[in-house]
Specification:
It contains 4 helices and 11 strands. It has about 160 residues and is α+β, with helices and mostly antiparallel strands. It has one domain (about 5-150): FomD barrel-like fold, CATH 2.40.380.10. A 7-stranded mixed beta barrel has the order 1-2-3-6-7-8-10. A hairpin with a 5-residue loop joins strand 7 and strand 8 (about 80-85). The radius of gyration is 15 Å and the shape is globular.
């Protein structure tokens, strides 16, 4: 499957970034694409660096409140998984539209580092007041991914 896609990440109704990707698989619920690092330059988070040449294999679900991005170096070495807590994606007319809900989880390739990220941004977003059901779904999704990451098989069962 080499279908061209455009992935658009939104936050609070605004487009954060939009970039081209190539389809890898689509089973009707999960759609997977491959895309190069789309931002300019290097982004060093302290626990991982995203940089030109990196490749992301991104997995989105139409029914789940998260997306999982496998992060590979340009040399083909797995860096880990960056998990975005999102609303279920909307797929239409060659576009994958993803609404970011601020919460994230990082899982290093060796599974030794599992970090919950941006919980302060989530609290400050006001989602709990404006859309309590979405906020509850987001928290459940983060907890479920965190729990899965701490199992012996890690996130792999979600991606097979």
């Amino acid at each position: 499957m080499t279908t061209p896609w455009t992935v658009t990440l939104t936050k609070a109704g605004r487009t954060k970034i939009s970039y081209p990707a190539v389809g890898v698989a689509d089973d009707g619920d999960r759609i997977s694409v491959r895309a190069p690092w789309a931002a300019e330059g290097v982004r060093d988070f302290g626990f991982v660096r995203f940089e030109p040449g990196d490749v992301f294999v991104e997995h989105y679900w139409r029914t789940r409140w998260y997306a999982i991005k496998e992060v590979w170096s340009g040399a083909g070495v797995l860096k880990g998984w960056y998990c975005d807590i999102t609303r279920p994606v909307v797929v239409r007319s060659g576009r994958i539209v993803v609404e970011d809900l601020d919460l994230d989880l990082w899982v290093s390739a060796d599974g030794e580092s599992i970090l919950r990220l941006d919980e302060d941004e989530f609290e400050a977003s006001g989602l709990k007041a404006s859309d309590p059901e979405a906020a509850a779904q987001a928290i459940r999704a983060l907890d479920a991914l965190d729990d899965q990451a701490h199992t012996p098989t890690g996130l792999h069962p979600l991606l097979t």
